[in-house]
Amino acid sequence: MAKPVITEAPAVNIIGPNTTIEGSIKCGGDIRIEGTVKGSIECGGKIVVGETGIIEGDVFCRNGDFSGQLKGIVKAIELLIFKASARLEGDIVCGKLAIEPGARFSGKCSMDTSKLESTPVAENHVKK
User: Fold this and answer.
1) Mind listing the pLDDT tens digit for each residue in 42-78?
2) CB distance 30 to 42 below 8 Å
3) Is 106 within a domain?
């Protein structure tokens, strides 16, 4: 008799409003931030920062959808979206970029994905 195959659903992590986390976060699945994170975030899936979300630190993810405030370097392997309410003070490195009218961005932007592959943290996330 064959063993049953057990598949894990990717975890969806939520940091709610009025929550502050100080320190680095590493997650293999998706994460939604409505509160404040003071530290770096490494996300193997998609990171969503809501309008009340604040990140003070560097972000590395597969995909990003930002409506809140960020201060730091943002690296996204695939798609990075800045909604109209997004505010970013820092640099961007991504595969694809979409910025809605009204979003504010102060920093440098590079769509050179070779810069992502040379990042040590990208080794587990970038398809070769």
Assistant:
1) 999 999 999 999 999 999 999 999 999 999 999 999 9
2) no
3) yes
Judge whether 25 and 44 are in contact, CB under 8 Å: no
DSSP string, 9-78: PPPEEEE-TT-EEES-EEESSEEEESSEEES-EEEEEEEEE-TT-EEES-EEEEEEEE-SEEES-EEEEE
CA-based radius of gyration for the chain: 15
Phi, psi of 67 (to 5 degrees): -120, -15
Number of structural domains (the chain) is: 1
pLDDT tens-digit series, residues 102-121: 999 999 999 887 767 654 44
Per this entry, what is the length of the chain?
128
Which residues have a Cβ under 8 Å from the Cβ of 112 and sit 6 or more positions away? 93
Q: Is residue 87 part of a domain?
A: yes
* Closest by CA position to 85, among listed 99, 106, 71, 75: 99
Structural domain harbouring 88: 26-119
